[in-house]
Fold this sequence. Notes:
The complex is a heterodimer. Chain A starts with a helix and ends with a helix. Chain A contains 15 helices and no strands. Chain A has helices at residues 2-14, 20-51, 71-78, 82-113, 119-129, 134-147, 154-161, 165-176, 181-188, 193-201, 206-222, 225-231, 241-251, 256-276, 278-288. Chain A is globular. By secondary structure, chain A is an all-alpha fold. Chain B is mostly helical. Chain B is 74% helix and 3% strand. A two-stranded antiparallel ribbon of chain B has the order 1-2. In chain B, helix 4 (110-122) packs across helix 7. The longest helix of chain B is centred in the first third of the chain and has 45 residues, at 2-46. At the A-B interface, helix 2, helix 4, helix 5, helix 6 and helix 10 of A face helix 1, helix 4, helix 5, helix 7 and helix 10 of B.
Amino acid sequence: MAIDVARIEEVDHSIPARTPGERGRRVLTYAILLTISALFFVPFLWTISTSLKTLPETTGFDLLPNNPSLRAYREVLTEFDFLRYAANSFFLAGMITLANVLLCSIGGYAFARLKFPGREVLFMLVLATLMIPDQLRLVPVFVMLSGWGLVGSFKGYMLIKLVLATNLFFMRQYFLTIPRDFEEAAKLDNAGHFKTFWKVMLPLTGPALAAITILTFQGIWNEFFWPLILLGFGSPDHYTVQLGIAQFSFQYQTLWPQLMAASVIAILPIVVIFLFFQRYFVAGVVASGVKG
Amino acid sequence: VAVTAKRQTLGSARIREALVGYGFIAVPMGIFLVFFIYPLLYSLYISRYDWGVFGKIEPLGWENYRELWHDEIFWRAIKTTLKYTVVVVPLEMALALSLAVIVNAGIRGKSFFRSAFYFPSLASSAAITAIAIYILSADGLLNAIIGGNRSWFGDSDTALWSIAGLNAWTTSGTMMLFYLAALQAIPTDVYEAAAMDGAKTWRTFWKITFPLLKPGHFFVSVVAVIGALQVFDQAFLVSNGSGGPNYSTLTVVLYLYRTAIADVRFGYAAAIGIALFVLIFTLTLIQRLLFGKAETA
């Protein structure tokens, strides 16, 4: 505690003396900032508060519940099957992220470093896929996958998400920034291309791998459109958390504590990841420039 | 002899490198061809048929497109989507730019505020829409604060604008990050020169920062417009998938979805998809022309 105070005082001294006007403006700036932050958080605080209330209590507007209880959480997890939905979401997000990390790093390496005829044309093709809106693909992809019997199962959804063009692009760009000296050494050792990639290059891409891991996991965990189309009409056993929320809100619209508990369950894992890996979020979002 | 032998090993090394390269990209390229490039052509093909749940029924030529041209609900959906876009894009950009400028203004606790403003962008559309439905319901928090009793998503006058407000709020964090990156790309000596001239903060912003942010404006507006034209999740969730009340939240993508999945008219839905693609493509081109080619690089 003492240390903190000392530091704050030190910082204060380092700032040159200000006129009262400037000081006033500074106070005002912080007041505005804190107000906006509060506005950004109020809906979430309200959500958490409601999730801890009983249904009759939701007719009042106290921020703090009278008898906070986790009953709503227990109910949505068991009676309303959200434990299964969460497990499904974890499985899908985990597998798809793993596939993307492997396939996009190895593909990105090839596009950045290996020479083969048609490389540039093929890379342009990868970039061109970013221009094709998902909605245009709804009908053909649905028709194809249902022809193969893959609608309503995890396989179809995983297949179309196996490689995301933004991740491949991101990894290629990252490999391009690595100096060539590292590979020259490997070449002298007569290492094969895969060994060079695996032993020398991949370990150098830590921050990029972290960024695509986090953004892919978040993207799949949060996705609504494709799970709705490919999993929404099969058995509820294959629902993701997001589909579960949609279904719950359509069916039991005013069971607010349970709906809010389900929303907290849907948001919490991503918030935890964000708290631990914030800088990768920011770097990833800015660099890939694409988020649904 | 030694030279030719060396050349041969060089040649075979090159061939090997090429083969390894193709091997490394084989799976990604396969996925892109099957699930991106081919569907583009396949949807053109499907759009020329009456196509039901068991496949082709009969060839229609351009009949689906002709029907689309005279489809009142389709035009209504286009109008709804454009109305939404025109409102939500400037709202998102203004909010994102304000947040970015505030966070960038040399304040203490910068990373805290950046995280706070980014926070809503983390939540899934389904969860955040459920929260919005709750807060904007007839007996929800918003009405308790302002003393009204309107069901914001249940009233055809306010449903679409409520979605616009919701999405402006949730996307502003991401857009703020884009603007922050653009702000930090402006060289500091520009500001030093302005400070020497004694320019006031407000004036510096409008005369110097705002115009220098042109690449940022371009990028953010393209992302925002594409996102707005494709709006679906929130419209689906607030209307139980119907696009109601009274078609007020029936966006183009929701209409496409309903045509394909609820009505099982795949041919007609494919035609809607292609119309949407053309619309997005045209608007992106127009934006590119508006902002000038040099700014996009």
